[in-house]
């Protein structure tokens, strides 16, 4: 109206009547009506100047924050965009920071209103707004992940408008931001970014992107060669390859909506999938490897699924390209990318058929062998998983060509640590298959400190899988526990301790007989070491060993008459720990067993020392009676009449083979006055020297 009069200022008397009506129309439910009202406001500002409407911009900004409805906020956004265009660049530069700040306001309605404003600014401001895209895009991307659906829709709508208006003029600015969004951890951002990327590519290719593509093969899409050339001309071949690689990867996204969006984009802009994949393969593999090494578990999963799908669908056509790229990737100085290579190898081998992989064993086996000796722990762990997958296809060939190399590397001081960890990784996934190949090398006498350490380290990984090999490992380690080299002693002892603790309930059936054989061995070092391990097992194991205690107690008591003093001490300490593991209420049930064992040890000592008073060496040690007393005490206090008699007689027999010095140390505190009187009355013949 102001443009129709000769002097716009003649409109001033009517502003009071006109402006309220325009404001009402601006929040009309019909979008077209709102659009007309918005343009009218812009025309009034252009024709009459800002000073005539001092309250207009504040009112629009306040309505932009309204809680009432999307319609009001949308009308205010549209009107404000026209007004800002009329006010010019300087005013817009001044107000833009506040607009961007309100896009992250705590109230959803405020975020929605200000993001909606960006939907209209490109239309009203054109090139002026284009200069601010870099500042605005982060707010749009944040809005795409908003928890409020209305805010997400507003951000996506603004993104579509940005692409529509600036796809060609601001491509270098828009494309990187959209690409980053494709790899976001938030699936909503990924979905919106794929849709925006599709809009951008459709614009560049000159297609609407509205074709409906259902089912069918991936080999043929709806695109044409001309459209493909148009994309290459605008983006450049390198950037086009990067974009297509990203789209192909998210075709396997964990979110269905993202997958559907990516498949639609791919089929709309790619004419021939196999040929396109061949062209972008190096870039695609680079993208997948980087994603497989990502800290985001979801991104790793997406990349793994994409690689698996690629191999399953186009195996023989793509394997000759994929495997060399992966092998070469192990030379990358970035450890994360090397880890990504190993994960990629697992996916490829898991997805390809066995017959497809056979012709590539010459590359796969050396690659995994190298990765198992990598300097980085995470790479070796992923290489171990890759070995497990390789074993499914290559079988013994994988073991024969990898394990010996690792064993040789263990002999080199520079590579021994990484080679050992490589063995641990493959042992953790293929224990039964690997152990028979490793153990003969490691237990070969004389046992070195490193080999003893290796046995302990591998035992931690193999766990219960060691059970069937206890007879091979334990004797070697027990003998090494008495080695002249202190380092060998220490590492062998630690390894043996590790092994007895990793055994499970089923393995105990193998371990206990092996330890019993050890304490009955002809070599004192073997008896001593086995006795120590028995004590260590009963003190530290979390297994239920009460059923094994009787045999151990009987054997260890007999060992108290051993000719080797160190063995006697080890047997006494082990006996103390075995007794300590037995519940108090069960102790009286072992009285007869203890009496028989003491009798056996006494007879053994009597045959050795004819004509000399019989004292058991193990009962001449300081505090030697301490582990025995609880057994007899419980029998005397809580047992039946027969049990009490057995306990009293057994205690007398025990005292008979105990040295006088040892008895003097413990006779008063045996268990208290009542117990002492009871024993004195029954077995006074043994006690009379001390009362």
Automatic annotation (TrEMBL):
Pfam families found in the cross-reference section: HEAT_GCN1 (PF23271)
GO molecular function: protein kinase regulator activity
The keyword Repeat appears for this protein: yes
HEAT repeat ranges per the UniProt record: 18-56, 56-94, 136-171, 364-401, 473-511
UniProt GO BP: cellular response to amino acid starvation; regulation of translation
InterPro entries membership: ARM-like (IPR011989), ARM-type_fold (IPR016024), HEAT_GCN1 (IPR057546), HEAT_type_2 (IPR021133)
Single GO cellular component term: cytosol
Domain called Stalled ribosome sensor GCN1-like HEAT repeats region: residue spans: 33-171, 275-412, 434-623
Keywords: Repeat
Protein name: Stalled ribosome sensor GCN1-like HEAT repeats region domain-containing protein
Organism: Aegilops tauschii subsp. strangulata (Goatgrass)
